[in-house]
Specification:
With 345 residues, the protein is of the alpha+beta class. The chain has 14 helices and twelve strands. It has a five-stranded antiparallel sheet with strand order 4-5-8-6-7. A four-stranded antiparallel sheet has the order 9-10-11-12, sandwiched between helices. A three-stranded parallel sheet has the order 1-3-2, covered by helices on one side.
């Protein structure tokens, strides 16, 4: 049995308390909300904070969804609540699809949107127990010197495996970060760095409090992911697509790839090929191929990297067909291995 290491637990009653305590010792303090990523990592000794600041007592400030000029989602909103929101389902279908496909119902009941955005990067050589990692002299990401994915690499190549980040980035979302010295708002694309170790631009003394999505205003979206099983597993390739349509003509588009690098990867050239074009089969094929060329997955997760790269083209293709309005339910059952059904709470 893997046990948690010793740590100090603090339970703030307000965001102000949480950021004040975080500022006391940011290098050795971490935030825990649902704990579905952090606590297993602590058991494997991948992350060993001296202090945990739990956000359960701050739910009133962090667990609301506000539908105003766009959508403001508190970082403490669970993925289950997000998947059960009629407003999210109707206006931001891709985000509903992404949240609905994370892990299992039990984990979605605990996991939060803020936690999923801050999800630790993953790797075959990193996500093992302590003894396994010790046997290979650890890895660059934790306690070692070598990235075993590519031994000559000067940086860690662990992969970003969050489902919601690519979709939120495609939707043009921003995040609000709070610390004792003030508040800053970042485009979600600027929240990430392409480095498996230092994958967030969030400072250690900052708390993610809100995710804000612009008004839908004609934008349609879809999220497709590849994994071995129909639940539990993290994505090993993913495509998030958002397009603003005027009839069949694309006014604007964004395509973001997941699980192929250490951050969500924006396929700008692929999206540009769609702009001011009819969303025809030919346009979809061209954009999908351009996205596939951009993707350069490494041998750091499940499935062969060459096949994962090829599947990016297919996933973008399927997402664009779905955005166009095609019935993709049969193909989704084949790829995602599950039915996506909306169940309001």
């Amino acid at each position: 049995m893997m046990r948690l290491p010793n740590f100090r637990y603090r339970a703030p009653r307000s965001v102000a308390d949480a950021v004040a305590w975080l500022a006391e010792s940011p290098a050795s303090t971490m935030i825990v909300a649902g704990g579905t990523d952090l606590l297993p990592n602590m058991k494997r000794r991948q992350q060993v904070p001296a202090t945990l600041i739990g956000l359960r007592g701050v739910r009133d400030e962090l667990a609301a969804i506000h539908d105003g000029n766009g959508m403001a989602i508190g970082a403490g909103v669970t993925l289950a609540a997000l998947a059960a929101s009629r407003d999210i389902h109707d206006a931001y279908r891709g985000l509903w699809q992404a949240a609905s496909q994370v892990a299992t119902p039990h984990l979605r009941n605990m996991a939060t949107i803020g936690g999923n955005l801050c999800l630790d990067t993953r790797c075959t050589y990193y996500d093992q127990n302590y003894e396994w990692r010790k046997a290979i002299d650890f890895c660059m990401k934790k306690d070692g010197q070598t990235c075993w994915v590519a031994t000559s690499s000067p940086r860690c190549l662990a992969v970003s495996s969050t489902d919601t980040a690519p979709m939120l980035q495609a939707l043009g979302a921003t995040v609000t970060l709070v610390c004792v010295s003030g508040t800053r708002v970042l485009p979600l694309a600027d929240f990430y760095d392409n480095d498996g170790m230092h994958y967030l631009t969030k400072r250690r003394d900052e708390l993610l409090t809100t995710v804000t999505i612009p008004p839908a205003d004609g934008w349609r979206s879809a999220y497709w992911k590849l994994r071995r099983r129909g639940s539990v597993d993290f994505p090993v390739a993913a495509a998030a697509v958002a397009a603003k349509l005027d009839g069949s003509r694309v006014i604007d588009a964004r395509i973001v790839l997941g699980a192929v690098s250490s951050k969500p990867q924006q396929a700008d050239r692929a999206a540009l090929l769609l702009k001011d074009q009819d969303l025809s089969d030919e346009a979809i094929e061209a954009a999908s191929a351009a996205a596939g060329e951009l993707a350069k997955p490494m041998d750091n997760t499940d499935f062969d990297l060459v096949w994962r790269k090829k599947m990016i083209t297919s996933l973008v293709n399927h997402a664009l067909h779905e955005v166009r309005g095609d019935d993709m339910r049969g193909r989704r059952r084949q790829i995602a291995r599950q039915e996506l059904l909306f169940v309001a709470r």
